[in-house]
Specification:
The chain is α/β, with parallel strands linked by helices and 355 residues long. The chain is built from 13 helices and 12 strands. Helix 4 packs across helix 5 and helix 8 packs parallel to helix 13. 45% of the residues are buried. This is lipopolysaccharide heptosyltransferase II.
Length: 355
């Protein structure tokens, strides 16, 4: 929605959230909105997000309006940001929470004249951020990292306050779910296990396609009526095709690049279980409270874990992990290759039995 749709005259002051640029990070920032809504139930919350991430925020109950950024990725575009800030000024924001750590996103609420601008130091954003937070050492997990912005900054580095926090939460309507099942040809009367073989960050985070295929075969041996939905972006279509080639055509649906992100969210909301690398789809499934099997190699499962009632995080915790690299610096990717389908099945099987 365009920011000029609502004028500020005579309306309740609003809160602006400037979204992270990654889908998973946006999901893990959602508890911040729960805390802000609890503190100011009368205050509408708008989210400014890139088009690729905005579908996530449209499934968040606490969000009143989603505004899409018109900026090119990585570009400063100072003139365009100034024009956009002028439009935001008309909406009457009392405060803004700047979740990306870059200067270019901190510019927007500063140029818009929003009085209270909350965020982390990031790229030395003194002045632009006037309620400045500093991360703990070592860095805290992502949910507490964003949720801490709802409280006053702490001046002492260290463990900090780790009170019980709300879990990330997304919602999908029955109408959205029915629509995506109809469009994809999935049978709503039969169980669906979703698998997400992709990971936008890099190849090091990807469990091999052959492992996904072996695990899907174990699922089908247990319940032949199960439908296997393979999800991801167009970049993941090839990996999903490799998985699909090893499975009966009647039960596998390669939906990588076929469904929009909004449709993928709706589909995940009705799954019996989800198997995914450390990716945006993993965190979406977790926020929908689906049974989740999360596969970690080069990343730390404690930094961004799933929060579902039924969830398992698998990591071999090799000596070389977590390296946090896009591609394996040693060339073998043992952290994912040696995470066997048999080990994954030991965790997934009881989830399916409980579904």
């Amino acid at each position: 929605m365009s920011p000029e749709k609502t004028a500020s005259a005579g309306v309740t002051p609003r809160t602006l959230i400037i979204s992270p640029n990654w889908i998973g990070d946006a999901v893990m920032a959602q508890p911040l909105l729960q805390l802000l809504r609890a503190a100011h139930p009368e205050r509408p919350i708008d989210v400014l997000a890139p088009p690729a991430v905005s579908p996530v925020w449209r499934q968040v109950a606490e969000v009143d309006e989603v505004l899409e950024t018109p900026f090119r990725h990585g570009a400063l575009q100072l003139r365009q940001r100034w024009k956009f800030a002028r439009l935001l000024r008309q909406r009457g924001y009392a405060d803004a929470y700047v979740l990306p750590n870059t200067i270019k996103y901190a510019l927007i609420p500063w140029l818009a004249g929003i009085r209270q601008r909350v965020g982390y130091k990031g790229e030395s954003r003194y002045g632009m951020i006037n309620v400045m937070h500093h991360d703990e050492l070592p860095p805290r997990p992502m949910v507490p990292f964003y949720a801490a912005l709802a409280r006053p900054p702490v001046t002492v580095q260290g463990p900090g306050l780790r009170a019980a926090l709300p879990r990330p939460r997304l919602v999908a309507s029955d109408a959205q779910i029915a629509a995506v099942f109809e469009r994809t040809g999935l049978d709503p009367a039969r169980p669906v296990v979703a698998m997400a073989p992709g990971a936008e960050f890099g190849g090091a985070k990807r469990w091999p396609a052959r492992h996904f295929a072996s695990l899907a075969q174990a699922v089908l041996a247990r319940e032949p009526a199960t439908q296997i939905a393979l999800l991801g972006s167009p970049k993941d279509h090839e990996a999903c095709a490799e998985v699909a080639a090893a499975l009966p055509a009647a039960v596998v649906f390669n939906l990588a690049g076929v469904t929009s992100l909004g449709e993928a969210i709706a589909l995940l909301a009705r799954t019996a279980a989800v198997v995914a690398n450390d990716s945006g789809l993993l965190h979406i499934a977790s926020a929908l409270n689906r049974p989740v099997l999360a596969l970690y190699g080069p990343t730390d499962p404690g930094h961004a874990p799933p929060f579902s009632d039924l969830a398992a995080s698998l990591s071999l915790r090799l000596a070389c992990a977590p390296c946090k690299q896009r591609e394996c610096p040693l060339g073998h990717q043992d952290c994912m290759v040696k995470l066997t389908p048999e080990l994954a099945w030991q965790s997934l099987r009881p989830m399916l039995a409980a579904a």
